[in-house]
Write a structure and sequence with these properties.
Layout lengths: L3 H5 L3 E4 L6 E5 L11 E7 L11 H7 E3 L8 E12 L3 E7 L4 E3 L2 E3 L1 H9 L4 E9 L6 E8 L3 H26 L3 H18 L2
Antiparallel strand pairs: 1-6, 2-3, 3-5, 4-5, 5-6, 7-8, 9-10
Helix pairs in contact: 4-5
C-alpha cells in the first residue's frame, strides 16, 4: 500500500516482479547493470504480452529480444528509470522519456505537442504538467496566431475521432465474452470525450 511517507518520497519502491515474470535493470546498450546501478526496468517472462495492437513500430521499440532468455524470448522496455535494491525490490526513480502520468492516464507530451503544431496558425508548442496533488494539470504553451479555443477544439475533435475508431474496432470483436467489458468501458470513455 502507498502511505504518506511514499507520497512524500522522491523515489518510490515499486516492489518485486510477479511470479512468471522477471525484472531486469538494463543500461542504454541493453546490458544488465550491477546491483544498485541505475537503468531502465525491463520485464520478461512467459506472461509477457506480444506487443501493441496495430502498432508495429511501437511494438518493435518496446518489445525487444531477451538475450538472457530462451529462444524467442522478449523483454518489455518500460521506460521507467529504476534501481534494484536488496531483496529484488525495484525503486522507481523517474522516466527515461517525457511520459507523464495524470489521474491514472499515461500521457506523451510530445504527441500532444505534435497535434497542437498541426493546428493551422500554430508555429510551436510545449506541453507539461504543473501543480501538485489534486491540483495537478496538463498545460500547453503555444506560439502562433491561433488562440487557445481553436487548439482546444482541434484536440477535442482528435480525441473523439480516436475514441470512435477504438469503439468501432472493439465493437467488431465485441461478440466474444472477453471483449464485452472493454466495449462498455470504451462506450463510457467515448461519452466523456464527446461531452468536452
Amino acid at each position: 500500500l502507498t502511505g504518506a511517507a511514499d507520497i512524500a518520497a522522491a523515489q518510490v519502491p515499486i516492489g518485486q516482479a510477479w511470479p512468471s515474470r522477471r525484472g531486469l535493470i538494463l543500461d542504454t546498450h541493453g546490458n544488465p547493470v550491477p546491483e544498485g546501478g541505475i537503468g531502465e526496468l525491463c520485464i520478461g517472462g512467459p506472461a509477457l504480452a506480444r506487443g501493441y495492437m496495430a502498432r508495429p513500430g511501437q511494438t518493435a521499440e518496446r518489445f525487444v529480444p531477451d538475450a538472457t532468455g530462451g529462444p524467442g524470448a522478449r523483454l518489455y522496455r518500460t521506460g521507467d528509470l529504476c534501481r534494484r535494491e536488496a531483496g529484488d525490490v525495484f525503486r522507481y526513480l523517474g522516466r527515461i522519456d517525457d511520459q507523464v502520468k495524470l489521474r491514472g492516464y499515461r500521457i506523451e507530451p510530445a504527441e500532444i505537442e505534435a497535434r497542437i503544431r498541426a493546428v493551422p496558425g500554430i508555429r510551436d508548442a510545449a506541453v507539461g504538467v504543473i501543480g501538485q496533488g489534486e491540483a495537478v494539470r496538463l498545460v500547453a504553451h503555444i506560439v502562433g496566431e491561433a488562440g487557445p479555443e481553436t487548439v482546444r477544439a482541434a484536440l477535442a475533435r482528435d480525441a473523439v475521432q480516436e475514441q470512435a475508431t477504438l469503439l468501432r474496432r472493439l465493437l467488431r470483436r465485441g461478440t466474444r465474452p472477453q471483449h464485452r467489458e472493454r466495449c462498455r468501458r470504451a462506450r463510457r470513455q467515448f461519452r466523456v470525450f464527446t461531452n468536452m
